[in-house]
């Protein structure tokens, strides 16, 4: 520590960068070993301490969510130069930076935790939560007939109440640290001071994009996914240590991308309905809110990876701004990064790049999986391989599928 302070006195900028990278190396290990967060539970406080000490079922779902995020990361980038390999020696190096790739990993794992915890609530696997029945609490807790206008008004009131609760939780942290790290979270008091009402059209625009209300009257029913519970516990587990630290660019970027991943879940909620009545008639229609498949969420975050914004630390040291002048600031849904991506064409143990040599490419494609792009213009080799595959499969009642074995010739192109 004394060496770092001395170096800071001699070269302030360089020492600050080293300090950030040391902090990131510590903070990101939680994704590679989620149990690491709970190993020093005596030092933990608040909700995070409760999860680690008393809630093994919730901790299990959090770990499942992190693993879900990594699996989807591998799927979405399977045909790119960086294929989001989960090899520890590579991913550990990636997570030590503040690159575009790190931003996606943080966003997809935060989304994965939100998704897994929310789904566990819906399935009744956690004793402290269940379906979200807040929409049905009016009229003595019984289902109430609504239409598009009254349903939207009720959801808006619910969101405003959630925003106010979150702001009240953040107020003590702001006064204690005098830090604007919470300005990159879902709810911002600064926007309210500037005339943006909580729950206003700008704040909730994307929340309604995928909610198509049916015509006529219907009733809230079924089992709505309790996404607010998932959001809270994803934030409690993944953001806790970063919020305890001083503000630096690495912390701000990580918290922003974590939140962008969670919002990708919340803003993709959709309305599903079921008709009830004699002979298939729709005398009564019951509707509930449901998350889409996680693959849809991960594809949306991959698109935001492609459009991620590079940022730099403001002079106040507590917030970030676009690195390029006259560039529109990133909103809370977009991914941000501070470090340029390393060269993934050739292997480099210092950056975690594994290179693309011997990767399979597509000779007829013009996209990222094309041999020209994936092989970094080094060329590729072509060969024909012979494989045994299942063919002529037949379903037999009940319940068996039988297949024959066929010899198949397949063309394979691999990078030089």
The mean pLDDT is 79
Report the C-alpha radius of gyration, rounded: 24 Å
Count of discrete structural domains: 2
Order of neighbouring strands in the sheet with most strands: 1-2-4-3
Overview of this protein structure:
By secondary structure, this protein is an alpha+beta fold. The protein has 2 domains: 2-337, no CATH class; 356-415, Wnt (Wingless and Int-1), C-terminal domain (Endo-n-acetylneuraminidase fold), CATH 3.30.2460.20. Helices cover 45% and strands 16% of the residues. The protein has helices at residues 2-10, 12-32, 36-39, 46-54, 56-76, 88-95, 100-122, 148-177, 189-193, 201-204, 227-238, 240-244, 249-266, 294-306, 371-374; strands at 145-146, 218-220, 270-276, 284-290, 309-313, 320-322, 336-337, 347-348, 353-354, 360-361, 380-396, 400-415. It has a 4-stranded mixed sheet. Helix 5 (56-76) packs across helix 14 and helix 7 (100-122) crosses helix 11.
Defining key terms:
Endo-n-acetylneuraminidase fold, alpha+beta, 2 domains, 3-stranded mixed sheet, Wnt, 45% helix, globular, disordered N terminus, 416 residues, 4-stranded mixed sheet
Concise account of the structure shown:
With 416 residues, this protein is an alpha+beta fold.
Topology:
Elements lengths: L1 H9 L1 H21 L3 H4 L6 H9 L1 H21 L11 H8 L4 H23 L22 E2 L1 H30 L11 H5 L7 H4 L13 E3 L6 H12 L1 H5 L4 H18 L3 E7 L7 E7 L3 H13 L2 E5 L6 E3 L13 E2 L9 E2 L4 E2 L5 E2 L9 H4 L5 E17 L3 E16 L1
Parallel strand pairs: 2-4, 5-7
Antiparallel strand pairs: 1-2, 3-4, 5-6, 8-9, 10-12, 11-12
Helix pairs in contact: 1-2, 2-6, 5-7, 5-14, 7-11, 7-13, 7-14, 11-13
